[in-house]
Amino acid sequence: MFKIDWKPNKSSPVPLHKQITDFIKEKISNGEWTIGYKLPPQRALAKVLGVNRSTIVTAYDELIAEGLIEGKSGSGTRVVNNTWNLLATPPPPDWNSYVNFGSHKPNLPTIQEINQAEFTPNIIRLGTGELSPNLIPSLSMKEIFHQLSNREISYGYEEPKGLLPLREQIADYLKTIGIPAFPSSILIVSGALQALQLISVGLLHKGSTVLTEKPSYLHSLNVFQSAGMRLMGIPLDKEGIQANLIQQYKKQQKAALLYTIPSFHNPTGTLMTVERRKLLLDTCQQEQLPLIEDDVYRELWFDENPPKPIKALDKHGLVLYLGSLSKSLSPGLRIGWIVGPEPVVEHLADIKMQTDYGSSSISQWAAVEWFSSGLYNKHLNEVRKQLKTRRDFTLETLNSYFSDIAVWEKPSGGFYIWLRLLPSLSMRKLFEIALTEGILLNPGNVYDHQAEQYLRISYSFAPLPQIEDGLKRLSKIVKTIAK
Fold this sequence. Notes:
The structure is a single chain. About 40% of the residues lie in helices and about 15% in strands. Helix 2 crosses helix 3, helix 14 runs parallel beside helix 16 and helix 15 crosses helix 16. By secondary structure, it is of the alpha/beta class. It is globular. Strand 12 (about 405) and strand 13 form a beta hairpin. Strands 4-11-10-9-8-5-6-7 form an eight-stranded mixed β-sheet, sandwiched between helices. A three-stranded antiparallel β-sheet has the order 12-13-15, with no helix packed on it. Strands 1-2 form a two-stranded antiparallel ribbon. The model is unreliable at about 85-90 (pLDDT under 50).
């Protein structure tokens, strides 16, 4: 999957193939497409630019004749020259080798395709894990920023752990869910993903093993792998991660850390029971295995509060607790937090200062207003109602179109339904066909390479008519492939 923000002008007197060759020459001469860059396949480029393949063939042939690109069977077409007097100038750096040998691994190819396809106009996003624009309280957000404009606030850098008034508000909020924490034990981060990045580079040795649920959101990221870590999954059941297996896995894998999403797990929607939370914490204490509790979905319950966080049971500073406003309020604020032992929080704060010199001060002040004004609690009450309606609608739609071809559990909160398809089929083929039909899926194998028959269905993002239309058409595609 690739993206080109340009199309030839079909009403221009300049032939289409000439417009395309000029465009590619400009990309090459500007240094945007460097030596070694792989050009899109002819059919794919023709589709993106809305021209016949023969037009692309003519354009590529001209560029090959000029010595700018070269096509080889099996390896595609690449840029081999970026100037007309290459012999008279020193060769440019091979940026391709820098890209390939950088320490940070690229996203999985399917994740890259999903990230790009999400911005395709009118595409039905059946797997997107964020609030619908209709659920983000834009009017209240405008009101809060208007209030900030009339107040004396700082617009400079904040202290390493983050804005003190915000940490005080979060400390008050944490008490309501059973976590006693002083502001000095809280670090403000730009979302839970940055928290994981700081932990991976600040607390773990290269080559360490991180235990996770199987499947897990973490398997769709390369944040730990890029820091030289390995991920090892422990199976889930209906009560959560199978804590009785932790001792065995820790010993076999010499694990350094365990990562869990106990409340409305991503991607399965599982809610870990009180008993399992206690067993998990007791086991990790016995094994001296630090625990990351990612609780970003906690407030998105429908009928009753989830059990208290594992951190609320932690009397030994074993748990690093992650929270965020990205799932419950707005991903655009980029506000999250880490709660843990002060020495750990101070160390991670120091690393954060080295990477971005602190999260946005304006976003932090806005978050203070959300908490202190009571608007956040008011918003949560409304968003829970809306998400529950969306969940019920999606379950009804699944019953209408998938009852004979899939099985699933009813989630009690969060964003996701973990759908297991009954016919055995190629998930890659399903993903590609659905994408050509304007339906974007999140296949299960990006969360666990063995979850080949699963889809993460999200009811949080797409409008309800799109969810119904997308699932109706998807069921037909599944049945066609399975024939």
